Amino acid sequence: MSCLRDPLRWSELFNFPQWQDFKASLQQDLQAFPPEYALVIAPLLTAGGQRIRPLLCFLCAQACGLEQSKKEKLVFLAKAGEYLHLASLLHDDVMDQGCLRRNLPCAHRIWGNRRAILAGDFLLSQGLKALIAIHHSPILSLFQKTMSAMTLGQMKEENIQWTSSIKNYLQVCRYKTAALFSTLCHSAGCLTDEYPATLHNLHHFGHFLGMAFQIMDDCWDVSPPKDWGKKPFQDFYDQKITFPTLMAWQRSSSADQIALEHLFKAPCANGQEALMQILKKYNAIHDSLESAKRYGQKAFSCLTSLSPSKAVGNLKEITRLLLQYDY
Fold this sequence. Notes:
By secondary structure, the protein is mainly alpha-helical. It has helices at about 5-10, 15-30, 35-45, 50-65, 70-95, 105-110, 115-135, 135-160, 165-190, 195-220, 235, 245-250, 255-265, 270-280, 285-300, 310-320, and strands at about 100, 105.
């Protein structure tokens, strides 16, 4: 996603040698994949997205003073996280019968459900391969719990309805999005043999940032900032209930609740304006952004125990940039 009002500052965060090593390693892997999988995976892998997850992985390790001898393991860790994320996108798009991903047709729309699912399974195997190369049992355990959480989150999302509570929706965000954020931040610290208290703070930083990220993503879909890199209202067209739309429904009159449900049953271009009117009427976008900011503030507080450094400053900058928003 293109989530930032300051793309130049965002791009500067990736300006370190190991990021180029990471990108080169992804490309080498892609070239070595069996062509049956590579054809399905390549568009998603090369489209990029913001790649905030591996970036957090590198910056957390740098913030903890990772030794030069362990930097290859860090690349493996970042790859494991990226492959797990991409696999979840392939699988989620099949589950949700999504249309677009990163402004491209979803893999299952081109190749069919079976090949998309198998390509996701293959990426999971590649993530496991990268984790094994690290030779670190605690990290492997963290990823096992995360994979379980992400699949549980997908199951719970299947049960989200208009009558679901905000608490239940946030639980889905925790499992589907924040779990991988926290695991990557925590695992990066594990590579440096940091103190348990520091690992605890890194874990919670990732959790709170992941929660903020998901809520912001929901807001960007219905009210995108300038230079938005995705087609807006995609969640609406995919008939997905999100944080602001659920908040609006819960605050709505009976008539507006019925109107919202009707809009989502048959999404169309004319329905976009009607949806926005209801969201604004009940301050759903504004208050969703405030919820994201509260999570962002908690993420900031988790970084106070780390010694000041360029990497810590960049972690704070990611949080700040993520929460910038005009609508």
